[in-house]
Design a protein that fits this description.
8 strands, alpha/beta, six-stranded mixed β-sheet, 362 residues, two-stranded antiparallel sheet
Length: 362
């Protein structure tokens, strides 16, 4: 017998959000872990909020909302707030009841510098990393390093001479003819994002306005242990790699680092040796600084195989995390966004390898 559609809005509901979320849903255990991490950040939150005045949206809710945006690839904060309004799963995750009003999307912009800056984002990232250390999921002996380009939210039309004092052409999208001009970062800068640099990573690639993201990965389970955002330039990868290796824990312990041919330089290899790190760098075909003292060991071959796993992290943040092209202006804001994105990546990966939820949910 065919049923009839007879929808009538109920005036009262006696079902809680806890009952609406399945007991086996992967976000259940993830929320428990995130709540514990945020509870440990009370001192950091108290330091950036005034003791008097009107109560604000709890920072824990805002941060958990941003984790949802990364996990479910929500395009904008406006769409994120809209989804929290009608999605019971999202309401439950951030800690809102059914009758609670969702904050305005401008709340994220208002708290960008205070709450979503590099300091607080790195504090959350470090707590995720310490959780992995506590669960014996990460290594402090073998690492891999690499960098990637993150396209800036700026067009080629904004890349103008630094001494250009001409009045901007009227109109939303004016015609600009820069063909035949020699444009470089020394003489030109973007008026939209001054931190962006015109750069291409290979000879056949096109030049783009972008930033450069660098990560240090431990080789046991592929977790990210350090993140750094720099200007896009030729030596940035090697300089950032040495800086991140210098920040690693237990500096007196010998370690190895795998890297591609872009790191095959005398300066980088000598810098690694000063940090008590054996550079397992892929050797160039000609004029290589990598000698037999490095390549003769079996661990060198292992590092060259495992280091390719670092591309999984870059692929995840660009496809799922939405960092193929940043929507934020400036290197400082991008650093906070990247740290939260890689912290979320670590949480997902730790769940799949550490048993926080079943493998088929990972």
């Amino acid at each position: 017998m065919r049923g009839n559609q007879d929808f009538q809005g109920a005036m009262f509901s006696y079902i809680s959000l806890e009952e609406r979320v399945p007991a086996t849903h992967p976000l259940r255990k993830l929320r428990a872990v995130v709540d514990a991490l945020l509870a440990a950040m009370n001192r950091e939150f108290d330091a950036v909020y005034a003791r008097r005045g009107r109560p604000s949206v709890p920072p824990e809710m805002l941060l958990k909302a941003l984790l949802l945006q990364i996990l479910f690839s929500i395009r904008s904060e406006r769409q994120l707030v809209e989804a929290i309004e009608y999605n019971l799963l999202y309401r439950w995750f951030v800690g809102l009841n059914i009758e609670d009003k969702v904050w305005d999307h401008s709340t994220f912009s208002a708290n960008r510098e205070r709450l979503f800056n590099e300091d607080l984002a790195r504090a959350f990232f470090e707590r995720v990393k310490h959780t992995a250390d506590w669960a014996s999921l990460s290594s402090d002996e073998h690492f891999s390093v690499d960098g990637t380009l993150i396209e800036a939210w700026a067009s080629h039309k904004s890349f103008k001479r630094r001494d250009d004092d001409q009045t901007p052409t009227e109109g939303r999208n004016p015609e600009v003819d820069f063909k035949g001009q020699q444009r470089c970062n020394d003489t030109h800068a973007s008026t939209t994002d001054p931190d962006a640099r015109l750069f291409k990573k290979s000879a056949g690639d096109k030049a783009r306005l972008c930033h450069m993201a660098h990560i240090l990965m431990e080789n046991r389970n592929g977790l990210i242990v350090d993140v750094q955002i720099t200007h896009a330039r030729g030596t940035a990868e090697r300089e950032a790699a040495l800086a991140m290796l210098g920040r690693r824990g237990n500096k007196n312990k010998r370690a190895t680092v795998g890297a591609d041919k872009g790191y095959d330089s005398k300066t980088f290899i000598e810098g690694c040796r000063k940090l008590k790190v054996t550079p397992h760098v892929a050797a160039k075909d000609r004029h290589s600084a990598v000698d037999a003292r490095i390549t003769r060991h079996e661990g060198y071959k292992t590092s060259q195989k495992v280091r390719k796993r670092i591309e999984e992290a870059f692929g995840w943040i660009k496809t799922v995390g939405g960092l193929a092209k940043t929507k934020l202006i400036g290197q400082a804001k991008l650093t906070g966004q990247a740290l939260l994105c890689f912290a979320t990546y670590n949480l997902v990966r730790m769940g799949s390898i550490g048993g926080w939820w079943d493998a088929h949910h990972a």
